[in-house]
Specification:
Blueprint (H helix, E strand, L loop, with lengths): L19 H8 L6 E5 L13 H8 L4 E5 L5 E3 L5 E4 H8 L1
Parallel strand pairs: 1-2
Antiparallel strand pairs: 3-4
Length: about 90
């Protein structure tokens, strides 16, 4: 399966085992940048202590960029009440 994929020159696939935050920090020791996802999508709110993104921000030796989770937008009925999520409606339509 991995032989069928193409990667930029100099990149590689690496497997690791252990605590996710610790592994990411350890593997990014010589990196120029570490990018991690987060479920904390609102600017100004603190990261949850114990989350992988918080661990990486606190322990990585390189800059860390967090990418927020994109939350689905609720659909509203004519009365303005939330009824269901847009992703659910799209899945039902296909």
């Amino acid at each position: 399966m991995f032989d069928c994929t193409s990667s930029p020159q100099g990149s590689g696939l690496q497997f690791a085992q252990g605590d996710v935050g610790d592994v990411l920090v350890r593997l990014s020791t010589n990196a120029e940048l570490l990018v991690v996802g987060t479920r904390q999508p609102v600017r100004g709110r603190p990261y949850l202590t114990g989350s992988v993104s918080h661990y990486c921000i606190s322990h990585a030796s390189c800059p860390v960029v967090t990418i927020p989770e994109i939350l689905p937008k609720p659909l509203r009925d004519l009365s303005g009440n939330s009824t269901r999520y847009q992703d659910t409606a799209l899945a039902a339509a296909t």
